[in-house]
Design goal:
It contains ten helices and four strands. The protein is mainly alpha-helical. The protein folds into two domains: about 100 residues, Nucleotidyltransferase, domain 5 (2-Layer Sandwich); about 140 residues, no CATH class. The longest helix is centred in the middle third of the chain and has 36 residues. It is elongated.
Length: about 260
């Protein structure tokens, strides 16, 4: 009961089934393993089968939240501190009203002002936790911008469709930014004589893949999700760039 509540449901090592009135609990270390495939479904099945009325955690994915709520299980996120403190907070929110089966209910004494204050505190706490990582991302981006020259770019991109798309994807993956910046840089690359395939791959990977900000993404969303998302975006950027370049070239010849 004195252990800290996991900052994410996927990071929890135990699922504690707690009787709010008596304080008695059952710890389930093996019933769920949220790092494995299908673990979300097992969480829902476990919660429903144990007659849980609510789940308290730091963060839970929207799909799991939706399925839990449709099963009549209330999900409360933004919970921090110890399990005992979270239980006391939930008791206060319930205002000593008996829990009613699977019926989802609101917290009677949790005023709007208290809700806003709690949300702001949770957001600031997460922001300051990620701040050192974000500062490192900004500094690393500045170093990359300084050491990659125009001459180096021209030596890398030879005009080969496949290799230009691959190198464009690699280059865009190293940087991080918003679409507007990628359009400006892409326009300059075209002026240097770099192929449309490379520029398209660069723009796509610029806004979808981010190796530089990967530590921040892992800290915020988890290692498995961050690596899978970046890997899929990297692979898909290459055929998207090739297909886009072929279509544009075909339309250009057809129009002229």
């Amino acid at each position: 009961m004195d252990a800290n509540v996991a900052h994410r449901l996927s990071a929890a090592e135990y699922l504690l089934i707690i009787d709010v009135e008596s304080g008695e609990f059952e710890a389930l270390p093996e019933s769920i393993n949220l790092h494995q495939r299908g673990s979300g479904v097992r969480t829902i099945v476990t919660a429903v089968s144990k007659g849980a009325n609510a789940i308290l955690t730091g963060y839970c994915g929207p799909s799991i939240v939706s399925q839990l709520e449709s099963s009549g299980v209330e999900i409360l996120t933004g919970i921090t501190g110890t399990v005992r403190g979270a239980l006391d907070q939930y008791r206060a929110m319930a205002d000593n009203v008996a829990l009613r089966g699977n019926q989802r209910r609101s917290a009677p004494d949790m005023t709007f002002q208290n809700t806003i204050i709690h949300t702001i505190k949770s957001s600031l706490r997460q922001f300051f936790t990620l701040l050192p990582v974000l500062l490192g991302v900004v500094l690393l981006i500045g170093l990359l911008d300084t050491f990659i020259s125009k001459e180096l770019l021209l030596s890398i991109f030879s005009g080969n469709v496949a290799f230009d798309s691959l190198w464009g994807t690699c280059l865009g993956s190293v940087f991080a930014g918003n679409p507007i910046n990628s359009y400006i840089i892409g326009g300059e690359l075209l002026k240097y004589g770099i192929s449309l395939f490379a520029v398209t791959a660069f723009i796509v990977s610029w806004v979808t893949v981010g190796l530089v900000q990967l530590p921040a993404e892992i800290a915020a969303f988890g290692k498995k999700f961050a690596l899978l998302r970046n890997g899929m975006c990297f692979v898909m950027a290459i055929p998207v760039a090739i297909l886009t370049g072929l279509i544009v070239n075909f339309l250009g010849r057809w129009i002229t």
